[in-house]
Amino acid sequence: MRRCVTWVVVLVLLAVPAFGQAVAEVNGSAADQTGSVLPGVTITITEETTGLVRTAISNDTGRFVLPAVTPGRYTVSAELAGFQGQARTGIVVAVGQAITLNFTLPIGTLTDQVTVSGSAPLIEVTQSQLGQNISQTDIENLPMQGREQFALLQLVPGLTPTLQPGSFEGAAYNANGRDTGSNLFLVDGQYNKDDRTMTFPQSRVTVDSMAEFQVLTHEYGAEYGGASGVIVNAITKSGTNQYHGRLFSYFQDESLNATNYFLKQAGEKNPNSGVKVYGGNMGGPIVKNKAFWFFNYEYNHSEEALNLSFPAAAAPLAVSFSDVYNVHLKNYFVRGDYQFSPSNTVHGTLIYGPNDGIGENAESERTTKEGFRHERAAPELLGSFHWTSVIGTRMVNEVKVGTTKEALWIGDGRMYNDQFNDVPFDIASRTWTGLRGVDPLDFGSAQQHPDYLAGPRASNPGGNDLTANVYSEQITYTPSNHTLKFGWAGSQNKGLSIVAANQIGTFEFLGNAPFNPAVVSTYPTRFRIRLGEMFIPINTWRTNAFVADKWQVGSRLTLNLGVRYDYDANTPNTKDGFAPRLGAVYAPNEKTAFRVGLGKFYEYPPTAIISNLYAGRVISPVFVFDTGEDTSPTRGVLPTNPCLLPQGRDGRAVMSPACRAQLVTAQNQLAAGGFINTEPVLEGNRRLGFLYQINAGVEREVFPGLAVIVDYVGSRGRDQTGRVDINEPRLLANGRIGRPGPAGFDPDGTRIPASARNANFQRVLEYTTGAAFNSDYNALEVSLDRRYANRWSGRLSYTLSKARDVNANAGTNGAAIVEKRVNDDLNPRLDYGLTNFDNRHTLSAGGNWNAWRDLGLGATFRYYSGNPVNETIGVDANGDRDGNNFDRPVRGVNDATLPIRSPLDANGMAIRNGLKGQEKMLLDLRLQYVQRVQGDQTVGLFWEIYNATNRANFANPTGNRRSSDFMRLITADEARSMQIGVRYT
After folding, report:
1. Contact status, residue 762 vs residue 742, Cβ threshold 8 Å
2. Are 397 and 388 in contact (CB under 8 A)?
3. Nearest 5°: phi and psi at 911?
């Protein structure tokens, strides 16, 4: 019956892009005092706070395995008639760990049981995967700015956060030489990734609802896939046999903060800013030892100071100012657990998170306040159900069903009501209600200058109403010396994506002066606008299956073997998506483990590709009008295109009647159907990209509770995809430079239909998978991990790495997995160089110390050598209609008035990302005092200081040689700030 239900669910849900485990494993052996193995020993593990029980029987080799163990604190006992029983208490089992416990039973009676307290072994001697666990002790005692759920990922070797201003404490990390979109986020093993941007978790897990989380960095098992970065698995809190609750509040404002570096230089003060957080939780038993509940609520209102500096030439259109990035975050979390019997347990989780924000990325975008990003998530939602069933003494079945939902709306502030609580789009009628009846052509266009953005926001208005339904099932079977796992999973991503980006148009300028119709040099050099359909249906599915075997060859050698198959319906060529995994662990003793691993890791693309291909069809309901770049104004000559001859108002370019008429004609043609899109985006030979990865290392417990880990990690990206202009200008048969047209790029007529072959095609982007986009990464990772004992714990990590890929666009990350562009489409490999996120040296440390009674100290330190800077000429020199920040300077062509700062390649062109970026260094501190007031009730006081040394951590300067701020430091991260908090438990 269960098998029938399983297949019905699979067919209904169409099955999850990737799934993983929210569980752990306890294994080991039983022997007598002579070393002879003992079969038939009953191994019982009891969770000390809930009373939940699991049992196993040692096999004929004396080995036992308890898979799918819920993380927690356990008592583990071993019993066999005729022998003295043993029990070990206080064994903390963390998510994803494989704890090995070996029992030696002396002859005696069961009533002579010996009980000892202790801890789990520090070294995992049966797993080849690399990663670290962030424990509840870390979460409770280390400083975390903004109480960001994954801030402590910065302590894990191999991970580097996005280093742009204001992003240190976010969830965007680069690992394995991959984009931020290459990571996978799980909540209790449930898929929790934003498939549209690929960069962030879909739903937020707050600090007070999270028990721990695990980060798998390299060579994770075949049960994990769909990603080539890291796996981040957050484990949520659950109720116990004791009622337990907490109330908390945290506060920060400008009076507790040092003045921003550039404001201080100008003799100004910080704007009114700060953070206010409050909330509480409660949990306990419904039925003791059987059923439990837990609920958490948190409200976070953050006003992060923004300091925007503009060149003097931009006045009065853009004048330097200070403001705040205003964020409201609400989070409701509930979890329930029930044990029907020791063989059957279930738990369910629900996260509901409405939130909104105004001003995100304003500093990195350098936008005036009018163009601030307004974003509402109404709401984010995650729901999951997990059933674990023990079948006999050798088999465990796990079933997970879940859903994630995104209802996200982004736009210009004028697209929302005054209360900022509405949705600017009506999905039922498919109308842009936020414009209040104003035609997009009359709303006003954005103004893009080299060093700032002005006017209304055009870059990303839109929204998403998307749901991902997920299902997975895994069977674990433990015969003899093997632990076999079989699993299958799938997901369906369905909904509507609203793409209103640039529907109001953008004027682009090569100078910073506001537009003045009387001054030719201030005229725009390019105008772009997207016309046509905004509401794009999304409907795709993914599925995967795997088999894995952990084979204990002997007492010292363990092989981790597996193969996984990934399929993505959104990618045409995925039939060969088999990914083998091979790992080996040799442990000469319980304090030392040598590891080696080799694997292949496929990566799913973002669902945004569906929108791109929908809009990019040759016969399309969408058209991106583009004048191309006309540099005539820089020579004192007026452009000829009517869309580059705007009217003027308050320093802004306003669409002229002639341009509007031209665009209305195009709109009418789109509405009539049959419109030929002369800048299409074609499917191409797109395949699922993958990563070959190899690692080798050693882990050694050098002192009791202190381990040192050294690993080499190498990865090679293959079947990588970029968008190549197959109609790139080149030397034609007539001896001229020009675009070849369909006759040149589509001689067999497979790309362009016959009805459109006579059109004047411009840029024709095609998704292209090939060796030209191969990437590589090499790293040495060293870490020290000191388990909590004698009132302190700590960890230290260092990573030396080098990451290289092919991608000319300096602004891409996250969803850029398959959206890369190149400077020379005829030879993409010319853009092979350091990745935009390459960071050569990373050093991080964290630790906490219980100084005296209930007085505790915590600290984290991070140093990053910085991301590189790409030097560009700031104009579309080769006329390929890409952005004006792609083309790099060439010796003898672009260095007459300004020397080229970057090293040059063999052709005399500046190498990609050839300039050193800015270093970052941060020290955060935490002081806490927890006073017991009555019974188990406590009151805690907390003080945290971020960037304690008040170091000015500058953002990378622009590498645009046309910018007046070329290689000048103009933006800095937050100065020293403080937060105080109080908590009642």
Report:
1. no
2. yes
3. -70, 155
Give 551: exposed, middle or buried? Use CB within 10 Å, 0-12, 13-18, 19+. Answer: middle
Measure CA 226 to chain center.
13
Angle subtended at Cα 588 by Cα 585 and Cα 593, rounded to the nearest 5 degrees: 40
Structure tokens at 81: 């008639």
Tokens encoding 463? 């929204």
Is residue 961 a contact partner of residue 872, using CB atoms and an 8 Å limit? yes
Q: C-alpha angle with apex 643: 624 to 359, nearest 5 degrees?
A: 65
How does pLDDT run across 735-773, given as a tens digit for each residue? 998 999 999 999 999 999 999 999 999 999 999 999 999
**Among candidates 697, 534, 545, which has minimal Cα distance to 623?**
534
State pLDDT tens for residues 648-695: 999 999 999 999 999 999 999 999 998 999 999 999 999 999 999 999
CA pair distance 499, 461, nearest whole angstrom:
7
Neighbours of 756 (CB within 10 A): 18
Among candidate residues 982, 979, 983, 984, the one with its CA nearest the CA of residue 302: 979
Chain-centre distance for alpha carbon 268 = 36
Rounded distance, CA 546 to CA 538, Å? Answer: 27
CB atoms under 10 Å from CB of 580, counted, come to 12
CA–CA gap between residue 847 and residue 829 (Å, rounded): 44
- Strand 130-134's sheet: what is its strand order? 130-134, 210-218, 231-236, 184-187, 190-191
Kindly report the three-state secondary structure assignment for every residue of 321-372. Answer: EEEEEEEEEEEEEEEEEEEEECCEEEEEEEEEEEEEEECCCHHHHCECHHHC
Tokens of 433: 């209600």
Cβ atoms within 10 Å of 1's Cβ, excluding its own? 5
Cα(672)–Cα(132) distance, rounded to whole angstroms? 58
| Burial (CB count <10 Å: 0-12, 13-18, 19+), residue 691 | buried
Q: Measuring CA to CA, how many Å separate 762 from each of 526, 604, 733, 753? A: 15, 30, 18, 16
CB atoms within 10 A of CB 137: 15
Whole-Å CA distances, 204 to 107, 193, 200, 891, 914: 53, 10, 9, 49, 37
Of 489, 487, 465, 491, residue with least CA distance to 476: 487
| pLDDT digit string, tens, across residues 882-920 | 776 788 999 999 999 999 999 999 999 999 999 999 999
Strands (E) across 60-119 are located at 63-69, 72-79, 86-93, 98-105, 114-117
Give the CA count within 13 Å in the CB-facing half-sphere of 285: 12
- Phi and psi (nearest 5°) for 87? -140, 140
Q: Which one-letter amino acid corresponds to residue 931?
A: Q
- Residue 656 DSSP one-character state: -
* DSSP label of 7: H
Q: How many CB atoms lie within 10 A of CB 426?
A: 12
**Average pLDDT of the segment spanning 497-516:** 94
Q: Which of 753, 513, 708 is nearest to 592 (CA)?
A: 708
> Count of CB atoms within 10 A of residue 178's CB?
28
State how far the Cα of 579 lies from the Cα of 566, in Å rounded to an integer.
8
At 216, which helix (H) or strand (E)?
strand 210-218
Lowest mean pLDDT among 132-141, 269-278, 331-340, 874-883: 874-883
Bridge partners, 287 (sequence order) = 291
Q: Pick the closest to residue 718 from 692, 739, 695 (CA basis).
A: 692
H or E, element range at 214: strand 210-218
CB proximity list for 852: less than 8 A, separation 6 or greater: none
Residue type, 65: V
Q: From its phi and psi, is residue 651 left (phi > 0), alpha (psi between -120 and 50) or beta?
A: left
pLDDT of residue 387: 96
- State the residue for tokens 């975008």: 365
In the block, residue with structure tokens 């098998």: 3
